Amino acid sequence: MQNGADTSAATECKRWTRRKEARPAELLEAALDVFVAKGFASTRLDDIAAKAGVSKGTLYLYYRSKEALLKAVVQQNIVPIVANAQQLADQYSGPSADLFRLLILGWWQQFGNTKLSGIPKLLVGEANNFPELAQYYHDQVIQPAHQLMGSVIARGIAAGEFAPCEIPTTVHVLFAPMVMLSLWHHSFGPCCPDNLDPIAYLNRYLTLTLTALSHPNQKLIPDSAGVESGQC
Amino acid sequence: MQNGADTSAATECKRWTRRKEARPAELLEAALDVFVAKGFASTRLDDIAAKAGVSKGTLYLYYRSKEALLKAVVQQNIVPIVANAQQLADQYSGPSADLFRLLILGWWQQFGNTKLSGIPKLLVGEANNFPELAQYYHDQVIQPAHQLMGSVIARGIAAGEFAPCEIPTTVHVLFAPMVMLSLWHHSFGPCCPDNLDPIAYLNRYLTLTLTALSHPNQKLIPDSAGVESGQC
Amino acid sequence: MQNGADTSAATECKRWTRRKEARPAELLEAALDVFVAKGFASTRLDDIAAKAGVSKGTLYLYYRSKEALLKAVVQQNIVPIVANAQQLADQYSGPSADLFRLLILGWWQQFGNTKLSGIPKLLVGEANNFPELAQYYHDQVIQPAHQLMGSVIARGIAAGEFAPCEIPTTVHVLFAPMVMLSLWHHSFGPCCPDNLDPIAYLNRYLTLTLTALSHPNQKLIPDSAGVESGQC
Amino acid sequence: MQNGADTSAATECKRWTRRKEARPAELLEAALDVFVAKGFASTRLDDIAAKAGVSKGTLYLYYRSKEALLKAVVQQNIVPIVANAQQLADQYSGPSADLFRLLILGWWQQFGNTKLSGIPKLLVGEANNFPELAQYYHDQVIQPAHQLMGSVIARGIAAGEFAPCEIPTTVHVLFAPMVMLSLWHHSFGPCCPDNLDPIAYLNRYLTLTLTALSHPNQKLIPDSAGVESGQC
DNA sequence: AATGAATGAGTGTTCATTCAT
DNA sequence: TATGAATGAACACTCATTCAT
């Protein structure tokens, strides 16, 4: 339970009053846990209610439907994080590589190493079923996060730290390993003995990424190599 | 019922024979389509049957259950792919960077640019519900694929093309963007206007990756920076 | 909660006192409205509470259950009406046809043209579910009302104004159009463009009824015509 | 079970084939029974299924929803009846009073004395909740039936048998006792000891009605009497 | 081999009722 | 007295699975 507070005897006695205010957060936390563990469709509202220590009906006092619960989980937990990171970047003066590293490590501490890291799995799985939610997540999280990483890279290029490159695509590529770390943790990770060490993974990621960014692009694919798009 | 045609006895006979043998593959293809589009839980067997042009009961002549169908979809489609790639690598002689590039482009043509690319999304979403299946996929696909990429990198290091590095973690990091490309295509991609161009993505990925691999690692994170693992 | 006004202590006090006494009546009025509009089962106590401007819990301070509320609605509203009519009839001296007409018009003004007219629909719909309530309504309302109309007809026959007839059955027949007017108003009426004009209906009803009552019965159905009862 | 046929040994053996065709009718009959007994909202689909001897799921093979079931009950049972009556009237030559009587008695035998007589109660109770259904019933049943009765009265007036009158309103008034007989049967009737004899009721109704129709209207309500419309 | 009618367990959602405040 | 948060039983509806044909 993230929040270690909440339990001094003094506060405890105002149980009823506190409950009412705390309930939504409690429910959301339980919902997050179960959604992440089972996926959206396989989650039973009973499970969430049980985990939150309330009856099934209580859920409906706070959230209109199962889908609304999922939406709330996403909205409540995700949006603030990107804003923090943006602020950090705005105030930072120093080498862009350091800023990049700082942001990645911050991501790890505030998101990746948190139960919140289960959310991307949820959304990837349900994006087709709830396009509106996917859109929301894209607009509120992915797009700003990409924006942020892009601005850091641009900053580095401007300062001559990084080699010039096409930024949006670069960001897409460089974001992938972070997201995959989340997904792995909540999908194959638990199944596999060769458990991935996230710290080693992050260090390696940073090394590779910053090495790549700081060297001029090699001409690696001759123009004639012709990678062409197909169907699908 | 799927076609009103009461065709001639002759063709009827041949078609039936062909049908019988082709059935399992037809069913799996239909299942793949629907599973990928809706996710496991939201897929109705009715939909798969309808798409395959058979009755719902027929599915059970070939597959014991919905879960078995999912397993079959995965097994049928995935296993062959890695073997091909391994063979290609074994026979290749030439620069490791070129081999790397070849494998990535092969992956794109045989998997990423195919409806098979929907499978990772499926498995990520259901790994917790079907650990056995996740294990299977890990053992049969992920592990061999990582093995392969690892051997290519080792080959490059041995030849002095790539800088020495810790291989397993590097592979994890470098595989991530490929998988994410699949996932993106089947989750957020359809929702978002700034549609990602896969070819540009792959080119940028190769450039960044091979640049990083071919340069000695910078000391980017001072030992004192202390990234420490937490809970979760 | 229903109004933001924190009025002065003085009025506040008076209002509260008044409120307390008025509450049951207010609740019943709200209940009547909603029951009539939606039917018993489709009525939510929330709706009644909201309409009455109280919390749902308050309803239970005054009425044991939803069913009790329905009973109270019926009891509170219906009983007084027949008594008034009976009194009117007792005091009346004059042609029986005029008395008949007076009673019908009184019925219209005090009941038919009132939200009370929604009650018969309620009872018809729920009679099977609440036999005790149906019994109560029959004993307290239908039976006395029939009694009254019967006495008026008997009075007319005794005075030679009406032709002799079997009274109880006649009353049943002659009451039907009145009840139907209520029911129509609260069922098909609102759906249909050819809106029934109640006044024209009542006038026509009176004309037909009094014409029929004041003429000797024709022999309309030969004894041999044989209408025989069946099952059901 | 209305239809005494259906059960010879020969037909019985084709059980499966026959079932499929017979099912909808069986379900509708069960639905009619339960709906009439309990009202729409208080009817559980389980009850209908049990009464029909099928599982709950089977209902959904034939009817999309509870509401659709109600609609089907109404459509299947009601519409044909009016058509029959219209045909009878079209072919009849003879005194209009006799035709009137014939139609009323036909109504009794084909509808009033049948479980179908429970339908009006249903519709009156649910008209507000399903306006579309009410509209349908009005258009398909009430309106044609009124039309028919109106044409009979017009025929009588034209032939000099009946006194001239305003027909639509008259029809409304004269239809009421028939409908009420149905409603009574399925609401208060079962609760009350003074059980109404339908045959006596019908005879009395016919006598009163035909007496009224065949005499010139008395001036019963002086113009000054002023029945005026009010609120509601 | 193929069908599709039938099943019934399972789940999201509603709502009358209760009770701590 | 009044509240409204909480409950939990109840029910419509779904869908994987079965099986007589």
From TrEMBL, chains A, B, C, D:
The keyword Lipoprotein does not apply. Keywords: DNA-binding, Transcription, Transcription regulation. Residues 21-81 form the HTH tetR-type domain. Residues 44-63 bind DNA. The keyword DNA-binding applies. InterPro entries: Homeodomain-like_sf, HTH-type_TetR-like_transc_reg, HTH_TetR, Tet_transcr_reg_TetR-rel_C_sf, TetR_C. GO terms for molecular function: DNA-binding transcription factor activity; transcription cis-regulatory region binding. This is TetR/AcrR family transcriptional regulator. It comes from Parvibium lacunae.
